[in-house]
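TICKET #2291
ISSUE: user wants both folds in one file
ATTACHMENT 1:
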Amino acid sequence: MKQTLLVVALAAAACAGASSAVQAQEEVDKATAAAFDNRMFAGPPGAKAYACFVRRYDANHLAQHPKQKVSAMKLLVSAEDAPEDKTTNYSFRLGVTYRHRSGNFDSSGFCNHAVATDSGHEIRFECGVDCEGGGISVALSKDDKSAIARLASIRMWNRNRPDDDASEELLAGADDKIFRLDRADARECAELVTDRKELAALRHK
């Protein structure tokens, strides 16, 4: 069976040069960016690093947010050295379960280096899905124990039907704009990874 990330990769190739729907706001200096990396990955990223964040919403939370479509979310943020470019590449994988429908839905894409909000009070990654597929921003709570994910819209794929016809948009709506996800062991996000070598590396983190 084809996998979601393979389809996303093919879509990226087909849409080479397409601009991300998520735009950086203000670049930060190298020291600020490095400090954010240390916070995100609990230390310097090195050659390869992962940060996993998970939230499963309980019945009480969902009762208080009746318009929330998402019942569970997993976010995997990755950093990888690119020696030939003397830089670090960032990417994300997002997994979603909905409260009123079956199935698991995935998305993925690349992130800009750390940027600051217009006010400068928050540092975050801006991450986008190719072919104008929307995206998310990823910040951290003050204690670094949670990720704050924000979205307006993002294209998702049904994990069991990862083809273009199975894609759909997760729109922010009233209760799906901001998600606070708890930091978890990287292995909690293993289901979002399909490459065998990368999966083995993730499980040894």
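ATTACHMENT 2:
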Amino acid sequence: MAAADDDDDGDDAPPGLPAGTPFYMTPAGHAALQEELTRLWSQDRPKVVEIVSWAASLGDRSENADYQYGKRRLREIDRRVRFLRKRLERVQVVDPAAQPRRDQVFFGATVTYAREDDSEVTITIVGVDETDLDRGHISWVSPMARALLKARVGDLLRVRTPGGLEEIEVVSIRYPVAG
């Protein structure tokens, strides 16, 4: 009865990355995935199992909404748990605070750059699963991050954006302080 997509945890590589590409993540991103896995496995799943067991004990399962919803939610939780476990097996945690070369843009850097219209944008380069545009966190495989990698303050870069080719200038590069 299981659908083919029930076991679809994604390929071995994160979205947008070819198989075999390193899967980088900051310590904070790694901790967030670990926390989600722990919550799903030790809190959410047992509650749903309890509801499904109770609903199953009522008899007719075909018209039992608690049972139907609970089974569906259990499959979602199990799918996410499999995904997180696979992800956490492959992750390479990179601590930006330990970056010895702070004069260049590498994974974990917070970069401020000036656009052609003289506005400034600040972004932090993070792992694929840590992307949050509202907070300025962009994936290290995004076109902007790829253009910025290895750049130094003062470098002028041409970046392809949705609005076309744009020239930007790196204004500052920061890394978290160790400890």
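RESOLUTION: both attachments delivered.
EXTRA DETAIL ON ATTACHMENT 2: The CA atoms of residues 124 and 137 lie 5 Å apart.
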